[in-house]
Design goal:
The chain is mainly alpha-helical. It has two domains: about 90 residues, Hypothetical Protein Yqey, Chain: A, domain1; about 50 residues, Arc Repressor Mutant, subunit A (Orthogonal Bundle), CATH 1.10.10. Helices cover about 75% and strands about 0% of the residues.
Length: about 150
């Protein structure tokens, strides 16, 4: 079942249960999917990887907004953003722990015989592909840097 179909079913469920926060979050996901599908040059059916990247982008936006609201003392708005982030995250694959990500990156480094920061691009490319949806790029980058230094 595609992400869009899952979201549409969840929207109906949220409408029936009158869960306005969840409904708002789900509608944001659906809107982003429709925008992605209608963008010029876009594929009519986005791939699973495209859907995961879209969800990660939405989660990242919510985190950044929450940080800004917290810094401005708007705790009420920050809490709403954090709640939406949790709802959107439900549709992402299970996130790996830092130890699991480190293990996978060490295997990649061994596999391609990376020996320093000059090989960071190669390692990042493979790691980003393998860990797509399972860890964010910032975490991957930090771990790759620590291993290659």
């Amino acid at each position: 079942m595609s992400l869009k179909s899952k979201i549409e079913k969840e929207i109906i469920s949220s409408m029936k249960s009158k869960d306005s926060l969840r409904l708002e979050s789900l509608r944001a996901i659906k809107s982003a999917i429709i925008l992605m599908e209608t963008k010029s040059g876009a594929k009519s059916n986005p791939s699973h990887e495209d859907e995961i990247a879209l969800l990660q982008k939405l989660v990242k936006q919510r985190k950044e907004s929450a940080t800004i609201f917290n810094s401005q003392g708007r705790i009420d708005l920050a809490e709403k953003e954090i709640a939406q982030e949790r709802i959107i995250s439900e549709f992402l694959p299970k996130q790996l722990s830092i130890e699991e990500v480190t293990t996978i990156i060490k295997e990649i480094v061994k596999r391609i015989n990376a020996e320093g920061m000059g090989d960071m691009g190669k390692v990042m490319g493979l790691a980003t592909k393998e860990l797509s949806g399972k860890s964010d790029g910032k975490t991957i980058s930090q771990i790759v840097r620590s291993i290659l230094n």
